[in-house]
Amino acid sequence: MSILVAYYSRTEVTKKLAEAIAAETGADIEEIVSKVKYDGKIGFARGGKDALSEKIIDLGPLEHDVSDYDLVYLGVPVWAGKAANPMISYIKQNEGKFNDVKFFVTAGGSGFEGAIEQMEKYVGKAPLKTLTLVTKQVKHDEFDEELASFIE
Question: Whole-model pTM?
Fold first, then answer.
């Protein structure tokens, strides 16, 4: 089975989880790079505003074609109760190309449901599985059990 892990990460938390999934599954990995700057406090505020409006933004070049993969893991942080809009932009850019998907979502504490519902709406199908972890769990490597269940 061919597997891709595609993720967006502003603060390296989602990236850490994406790399763990790729290592466990032998998947290819695709970092989604936003052409809009979301760094620092101003970027944080801009990200929340853009997420609420579900703004589609320009992304950097992509290395992998999602239609070449049997399974794509999509990883995203929660911004203002929604999926970070670079991920929504990535999903829109690949509309109709996804085979099976699994979602992994990171957040400071809440908003998981809204992000998952939004991703499902844009992908156009339900994920096989979802994984939701708070930032603290990821930073302290407290997710082995949840990860094992998610990738099985």
Answer: 0.95
